[in-house]
Design a protein that fits this description.
Layout lengths: L4 E6 L3 E7 L5 E8 L3 H4 L1 H15 L9 E8 L5 H14 L2 E8 H9 L4 E6 L3 E6 L5 E3 L13 H17 L7 H9 L4 H9 L11 H10 L3 H24 L8 E5 L8 H14 L4 E4 L4 H12 L4 H11 L3
Parallel strand pairs: 1-4, 4-5, 6-9, 9-10
Antiparallel strand pairs: 1-2, 2-3, 6-7, 7-8
């Protein structure tokens, strides 16, 4: 019997695949780099996903491999993007049926029954919500042009920006200055700037300044704390807008937080986000997701197939982070 579900969660920085049976048993898994169609194009995205699908379960026989494919990826921000990927994946013939959607919805399902609010912050930042009546509220999440601020890379840029200005005198003194220079292994921030300018330092490494920013803030640095406060407000605003748009402010909605930044920043920052969310919806339940979003994609697949709750419980128990 062929597996029930091929589940895919594809963010900007990583992609995960689970192959799951109809009773919620994980039959195989794989992980690779980000494969957002916005970043690498639909054709390259589909090729990368197929490699990961075959790696996850080498025992696949003839196509279709599974009953259902549940694929949730970053970069599916508009209907035309979902339609393009749906057509390309359908042509691969992995499964009898197929669902595609934005990865923020997979996060929501990973941490809830699929109704409520999800805010994700990894390389980028996004939010989505689903009301009890099925209404969905989303954001384009295209970066600055769509009003976004606060993804992991942007937070790293903020740390670098404040550090450089502290060194050259245009900004206040901050512990970010020596910390950022040390992160890059350079004696000064001017050396860091030159290294980035002459492509001697990989610009992708700026993302790694994000956890450093939170560490410096936790040690009491006012400049870093101001950036973290702005980030807390940004996450909270995503949630607040969705709560209001879906008429959830008087309900007891679940607010699921996920992505590498939000799962790694620690309880005090999460508590500040929770405090702001509760001002908008006092009965809300705020939680950091305890399974990877690909589990949400798999749960959506089990939902589609009408699997029993026992199968979903088994899947979550088997994939919960320790």
């Amino acid at each position: 019997m062929k597996p029930a579900i091929i589940a895919i969660d594809g963010g900007n920085s990583k992609t995960e695949v689970l192959v799951v049976s109809e009773d919620g048993v994980v039959l195989g898994k794989s992980r690779g780099p980000g494969a957002s169609p916005q970043n690498i194009g639909v054709a390259a995205c589909v090729a990368a996903l197929e490699d990961l699908v075959l790696e996850a379960f080498p025992g696949f026989g003839e196509r279709p491999f599974a009953v259902h494919t549940s694929a949730y990826l970053a970069g599916l921000d508009f209907p035309r993007e979902e339609e393009a990927l749906h057509a390309a994946l359908s042509a691969r013939g992995w499964s009898d049926t197929l669902t595609v959607g934005n990865d923020t919805l997979a996060l929501l399902r990973a941490g809830s029954a699929g109704v409520g609010v999800a805010v994700v912050c990894g390389a980028g930042i996004n939010g989505a919500g689903v009301g009890p009546d099925g209404r969905v509220h989303r954001f384009p999440a295209l970066g600055k042009i769509s009003g976004d601020w606060g993804g992991g890379y942007r937070l790293g840029e903020e740390a670098l920006w404040w550090a450089v200005r502290a060194e050259d005198g245009r900004g206040p003194r901050t512990a970010l200055m020596p910390a950022v220079a040390a992160y890059f292994g350079k004696p000064t921030l001017l050396d860091v700037v030159q290294g980035l300018h002459f492509e001697e330092i990989d610009p992708a490494s700026i993302h790694g300044l994000c956890p450093l920013l939170f560490e410096v803030a936790a040690d009491g640095d006012e400049v870093a704390q101001d950036v973290v406060t702005r980030f807390v407000e940004e996450v909270s605003v995503f949630a607040a807008v969705i709560l209001r748009e879906l008429d959830l402010t008087e309900e007891a909605p679940e607010i699921v937080l996920g992505g590498g930044v939000l799962t790694g920043i620690g309880a005090p920052v999460i508590a500040e986000i929770e405090k702001r969310c509760l001002k908008v919806a006092p009965r809300a339940v705020v939680r950091v997701v305890d399974v990877n979003p690909v589990v949400g994609a798999a749960l959506f697949g089990l939902d589609t197939l009408g699997a029993p709750e026992a199968a979903k419980t088994a899947l979550k128990a088997a994939t919960q982070r320790v």
